[in-house]
Please model this.
Amino acid sequence: MLVAISSSGNSPNVLAGCEMAMSLGGYVVTLSAMKSDNLLISQGNLNFYVPAETYGAAETCHAAILHFWMDQMI
Model:
């Protein structure tokens, strides 16, 4: 499983990682923000989009999602 995080949703290295993981049959979870038409939204099996307009707000929301997810697994 790949968890891909990009606040802009358009980071070339993150997108390339998603493409590689999917080509190998991996499961991809994405977390993105900024614009709802970012490229990362279409790259995962499960996608989380945060309608934040600043990096600080986006990263804070992404951290909250990841903390909640990990708490549920423990």
About this structure: The mean pLDDT is 97.
